Every structure is written in C-alpha cells, then in structure tokens.
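Handoff note, outgoing to incoming analyst
You'll be picking up this chain. Sequence as last confirmed:
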Amino acid sequence: MKSLFLSSNLRFNKVLVYHTVSSTQDIARQLVLSKTPAQVQEVVISAYCQTHGRGRHYEFWVSEPGGLYLSVIYKRQTSIINVENFTKDLALIVKKGLEELLPYGMLEIQGINDLYLNGKKLVGILVETVSLGIFPVLPPYVYILGIGINVNQNNFPKTLTKPATSLFCEFGKKFSRYEILKSICQKLSDELS
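Most recent structure output, in case you need it:
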C-alpha cells in the first residue's frame, strides 16, 4: 500500500493505493471501524484489482486488473435520508467526472447505480452505511461510496448477466487511471457537502 496526495484544495485528496485487495469496501469498513467517530478521516481507497469486489445486494463485481476500484469514506453531519436518491446523485457526479475525459460518447445512467456506454455497463456504484456502534446514532454519519470503473480491461467473462465494457474497448486506447481518479475526486469534492 502507498499513500497518494492529490491537490490540497480537494476535500477527498488522500488516497490509499493498493495493488490487489479482496474489496476496497472491506478495507474502508475496517479502517472506519478501527477508529472512534472523531478519528474517522475522509480518505479514498483505490485498487488495481479486487478478488471479491461487490455491487448492490452483494452481487459479484468483476474486478480484474486494469480497472479503477474506489471506496470513498464520506462523513456528514446530517444523515442521508434517502440512500436511493443519494446514489442517483452520486452516479451523476461520477458521470460528470468521467465525461470530462472522454473523447466522445455519452454515458447513460441506468437504474440508480450503473453507468452504461453504448448499451454496456461501464461503472457500478454502491453506497453503504457504517454503524459506529453508538446508540442513539449521533453525527458524524459515515458512508462508504464504492465506485467501480472498467478502464483498460480488454475482455470480460462470458458468464456476465449484463454486457460489460471498458473505456479501452469502446475507444481503442488506454486511459490514465490516475487522471480518472483525479477527475472523480475533484467532482466529489466540488459536489458533496
């Protein structure tokens, strides 16, 4: 694991970078639960590969090398009342961050948590609440925002129930995972309160 610091003017500027993990969501959860509420810091967990990535309803997320797999520890002083609406908002933020880097093509939000490109799944988004074990639940409220982006993979298992794609497959060129990470963190910092 190595630490990476993005621009100091970003809210989400500290990134813990791993090569391979079971799941960035699990790493983020362990990090949160190892702290007191006051000690929890907003940080981004990033991995090149996940062995047990997951989406909503614990569905398996194929997380082979070449993708960008992120979990963002996000703190708020108020509770998120409607997680589904928040997930839709998060999908729109990620869409904006990615579209700034694309040469052409429009991303489409499907459901509340997936981004599609040319009719194929490119991004999956997951929002999980972390209970710090304090009752009644008091601020800060902690959420883990999972974002899986298919960046430079060139093939996907034939067993997937929905067709998947990557930026590489759609545009025929490699994309910088670092530039995508910076763009997403910028948009999250700009738009999340």
